[in-house]
Amino acid sequence: MKKIVVVGGGAGGLELVTRLSKTLGKRKLAEIILVDRSRTHVWKPLLHEVAAGVINKASDGVDYRMHAAQHHYQFQLGNMSFIDRDNQSIYLDPLYDEDGLEILPERTVEYDYLVMAIGSVTNDFGTLGVSEHCYCLDSLNQAERFHRALLNQLLKINQDGVTKEKIHVAIVGAGATGTELAAQLHHVSNLARAYGMPEMSADKLQVSILEAGPRILPALPERIAGSARRALTRLGIEVRENTRVQRVDKEGFVTADDVLIEADLMVWSAGVKAPDFLTDLKLFELNKANQILVTPALQSTVDNKIFAIGDCCGVLQKDGSWVPPRAQSAHQMASLLAKNLQNLFLNKPMQAYTYTDYGSLVHLSKYSTVGSLMGKLSNSSMFIEGRLAKMVYVSLYNMHLFAVHGWFKGFLMLLMRKVSNLVTPKLKLH
């Protein structure tokens, strides 16, 4: 039986193995294997909510091993370190426990078809001090690490005898992650008062967003950016545009004008790129964002047995732009590749991938949701905000749940989430 190995369990990878297990796996035409370095999947657009503490992986995460057992594919926990094209196999690093003891040795996993779905990481653009002093939100572990640091700051300011007046959080990058995190932090600062921190309020948390460009949300239409900026300003969030950071110190961000912006917590969310690991492999053709260049059928340009989807996949469009690294891109790629792999097994021609932009949405906690609908949802770009925009935003996550769990179980999980929100604390305190 042929093996299809998918490396990376993000939105695209997890949806792909779910689809393949229902078709090729169910018909015993292929063995489906998912490889990921984490045990739990959390939809990446929700990581800023994990960081702020308004959701947790227990209610919104997917346990890979349990999901694999339910959907009849295999899950391998591990970090891929090398691809052996000649022998069509990948190498996984040894697995260690928290005390440094080896649980599993280095392993190899053979494949007939390999799918790279390893996502993206924050791009620091070579800025000094980012890795030492900043938090990024690329993974569940990083989001939880920031949340613990935030809780520590909240505890400090509520301790008797502490004279500190404010907590200052500075965020570099005014894309969707930076702006949404800022709004969630404002919300959390008010919630904390009801959870044993009487000294805390929005007045005690100063949030600053630093953007090198002339406006926030540079990838989105100007009308959306303007509406989001006004909403953030009303919340008292400081928005600094045309502010380029040249280095990061322990005390804060140092701008190109050599001005120090002090901060207790520093977050870097200024763009993304595919992991540098792809460059180190010296195997694929890559673009400037480290993305794997692919054919119209999403096969890598160097090996037709290796495919790529999601943020690590570089698809050049007819207008000369690259397909943006968004959840909707990963979803569309996973859907097409599931069909193409099935066509390969049935000796049918593969289809070409075409990206459809359905619009963009920015959810600023409970305060505002703004965005635009495009593609098949609207004949032209249509600006939406308020309740309608929030309904569309929520529906995007719901569609991800349905793709991963199926309609029936997905609906039950949404129902359980609604009930859980009524009875559990609105702020995660551990």
Describe the structure.
Its cofactor is FAD. Residues 2-334 form the FAD/NAD(P)-binding domain. With 430 residues, this protein is of the alpha/beta class. It contains twelve helices and 26 strands. The chain has helices at residues 11-25, 47-52, 57-60, 64-71, 130-133, 140-157, 176-191, 222-234, 277-281, 327-345, 387-405, 407-423, and strands spanning 2-7, 30-36, 40-41, 62-63, 74-77, 80-84, 89-92, 95-96, 102-104, 107-110, 113-116, 121-122, 167-172, 205-210, 238-240, 245-248, 252-255, 260-262, 265-268, 272-273, 292-293, 306-308, 313-314, 359-364, 368-373, 382-385. A five-stranded parallel β-sheet has the order 5-2-1-11-22. Strands 15-14-13-19 form a four-stranded parallel β-sheet. A three-stranded antiparallel β-sheet has the order 6-7-10, with no helix packed on it. β8 and β9 form a beta hairpin. α1 packs across α11 (387-405). The longest helix is centred in the last third of the chain and has 19 residues, at 327-345. The protein is globular and about 65 Å long. The mean pLDDT is 90.
